[in-house]
Amino acid sequence: MTPARAVALWRSAGILLALLLSTPAAGHVGGTTGFATVTVSGQTVRYALTLSMAAVTPELADRMRLGQPGLAPDYQPLLAAVEEHIHISSDGRACQATPGNLTPPAMEGGNVAIVVLFACASEPHELVIHDDLFDVLGKDYHTLANIEWQGGSQQFVFQPDIRETRVTIQAGESASGAGSFFSLGIEHILFGFDHLLFLLALVLRGGNLWSLLKIVTAFTIAHSITLALAAFNVLVLPDWLVQAVIALSIAYVAAENLFMRRPVSHRWAVSFLFGLVHGVGFSGVLRELNLPASGLVWPLLSFNLGVEVGQATAVALALPLLLWARQFKWEPRAVAALSGVVLVVGLALFVERVVF
User: Fold this and answer.
1) pTM tops 0.70
2) SS (H, E, C) 261-281
3) pLDDT category of residue 28 using cuts at 50, 70 and 90
């Protein structure tokens, strides 16, 4: 590689790394996520939201005096935003929100807990929940909600284009809101840059179509196994460790592309091994809901199917371009350059997740 190409490679790596590390919240969920528990008890609906301070927009942070020297944070604007942008109605009549309360984060940048009680005119039979928090927290925000009542529950993902859900309250019946978890799974893989970097590194030197099929299939089987085990809390690993190994998997496969002459023969095994770790990473959004096992099956299946669709879409878009490039003499140099960039990014992510 000439000095000029080496400089260009490192410059590209630096730019890509800066872009990725400037948006850490988008690594796995396609944005920031709040976790809501909506509990129906008689004529009262309790809305409890756990929200990372990373979800707060710069404009809202200014109003809250976050990071302003000499000034104590004021969490009232965030509490007011939740009170104003969450709407609940029972059987066609609006439930009235009572003044809520907010528990500040235990440490800087931690989670806040917000609770708002809604008083309904009668015990709900049909509950409508409308979430407009995206108007203050941004278009990349999601709310994962577990709606529960005596003898039943339902899960739903509120998104900028899916802001409302309608729930029939009936003892002994549960529903899953599976469609919203399907779209969340698609977003999780398509906007999860570390998973996409891993897939890119895998297929850059993936060999023929049969080899590529084995690689993708091995990754699918592996992450489906550990996604289920982790979601049901059978397999529990520290989140920092999982995220660090995911970053290391990116760097390792990129290094194979650069320094091993024939990585294709065992690439499916590498895909399976690291796919097990990626599956644990996928499970985070489901585990945060603390769902009982009986309420987790359909969200899990729907979310995993969405991940598979997102993964298949990414591979289907990349493969024609990769196969087309193989007819040219410059293809090995392009693979090496891309692998070099991915290696740098993977190592940087690993250091960031272990040290910081």
Assistant:
1) no
2) CCCHHHHHHHHHHHHHHHHHH
3) very low
